[in-house]
Amino acid sequence: MRLPSILACLGFAALSWLTLPATAQKSKSIARQPMTSAQLMGNFPASTTVAPAAAPAPLPKLLSLGEQNVIGSYHLGVGFQKTTHLIFPYAVTYVDLGNAGIIADKAQGAENIVKLKANQPNFPQTNMTVVTADGRLYSFLIDYEQDPRVLNYNLTTGAGDASPVLPMVLFSNLSMTQAEMENYSRIVLKKKKMLRTKEVKDDITLALPGMYTQDDLFFLPLHLFNQSNINYDVDFIKFYIRDRKLAKRTAIQESEIAPIFVYNATQRTIPGPGGIDQVYVLRKFTIPDDKNLVVEMFERGGGRHLTFDVTNEDILEARKLKR
C-alpha cells in the first residue's frame, strides 16, 4: 500500500515543477548544481567590495576685486628714432616690459631715470611696470608713436598716485631689506637731536639733526618745521655733490645722489604751524675736501626753497648704528 502513495507524491512534485515559471526553474536548477571539490574543502571566492566614491574636491575661494584694488596706468607714446626719459622721485629697483616691442634701461649714473624707446616700428600696444626704492609701483600703457611730442616726463610730482608694495623686499646690491631700513629709520628718529646744520627761510626750517651709518648705507634724518600759518607742500628733496668754491665763468658740476629709501615718504605737506620728520637712506660715500654735499628742498607751486651744505668732515663723523 505504501508504494502507490509514494508514486502519487512523486507525480505531484513533478506536476508542481512543470507549472513553475521558467525563471524559477532556472534559479532552482542553478541552486541544485553540485558543489565543486574546492567548495567542498571550504575555499569560496572572496566577495568583491566596491570602493566608495571619492568626495569632490572643494572649490577654491574666490575673492572679488573692487575699484579700490585697481592701480591706474599712465599712457605713453614712444618712437623708434627718439628716446623718451622718465624721471622718478627715487632710485629705480625693478623694470618689467610687456613684450619685445620696446627697450628700457636705467640712465648711466642716474639711479632714478629710465630711458625708453621702440625696439621696432609699429609694435602692438604693450605695458611697462616700474618699482622705485621708496616702495612704489608705477604702471604704463605704451603705444608706438612715430614722432613723439613729449620726450621727458617728470614723475616726482605725482608720487601720490602710486601704490605701496609689500615690505621685506631685498634690493639689489644692498645688504639690507626694506623692513630693516624701516626699523633703523625708527631708531634714528628716536635719538636725541644733535643739530648738525640747518637752513631757516620764510619761517620754514630744514635741518639735519645727525648722520648715521650701518653696513653700506647712510641714514640722514631731516626735520622739516613750519612756523608760518600757510601749509608747505614739498615738491622734492634732493641730494647732490657740488664744488665748494666755484671760479667765475665756470660751469657748475653737480652729481646727484638718489635716495634708495625714504622713511615717512608719504608725508609731503608740512602743516602750518607744525613739522614732520623723515629719514633718507643713501648709499655710503665720501667726498673730497673741496666739495660739499648739498641738501635742497623745493616748495610745490611756491617760492620757499631751502638749501644747506654738508662738509666731508661732517660725513666722516657719522655715528654707527647698533644692530
UniProtKB/TrEMBL annotation:
Organism: Hymenobacter fodinae
Gene name linked to the record: traN
Sorted UniProt keywords: Signal
Superkingdom of the source species: Bacteria
Phylogenetic placement of the source organism: Bacteria, Pseudomonadati, Bacteroidota, Cytophagia, Cytophagales
Signal sequence extent: 1-24
Database matches in InterPro entries: Conjug_transposon_TraN
Protein name per Swiss-Prot or TrEMBL: Conjugative transposon protein TraN
